[in-house]
Amino acid sequence: MSKREKLIKKMRENPKGIRFEEVDNLLVGIGFHRRQPRKGSSHYIYRMGPHKLVIKRENPVKPVYIKEAIEIIDLIEKGENLNE
User: Fold this and answer.
1) H/E element holding 26?
2) For the chain, give me the number of helices (H) and strands (E)?
3) Model confidence over 40-72: pLDDT tens digits?
4) Is the pTM of this model over 0.85?
């Protein structure tokens, strides 16, 4: 099992206690483009095709952001489009 698979499993089993750096590395590693909207903003926007995810930079990341990331990762793995 790769590091990416282990992290996704960890996120699914317990979305609490996940560090921002872990989520950031995972999303960028999958192919998301990251940007910070304004200088000094604590929110980061991740985009990949029609998929968009906004995550606040804090440790640990709130479970709501983790659950949303997992849903989008599942859609991408299934090859589904978010807009369908």
Assistant:
1) helix 20-30
2) 3, 3
3) 788 999 999 889 999 999 999 999 999 999 999
4) no
Give the residue numbers spanning the domain of 17. 3-78
Domain of 70: which CATH number? 3.30.920
- Give CA–CA dist 21/28, Å, rounded: 10
Query: Residue 66 and residue 20: Cα distance in Å, rounded?
Result: 10
Burial class (CB in 10 A: 0-12, 13-18, 19+), 18: buried
Tell me how far apart the alpha carbons of residues 56 and 41 are, in angstroms, rounded to a whole number: 9
Burial class (CB in 10 A: 0-12, 13-18, 19+), 11: buried
Map tokens 């659950």 to a residue.
67
How far is 5 from 36, CA to CA, in rounded Å? Answer: 26
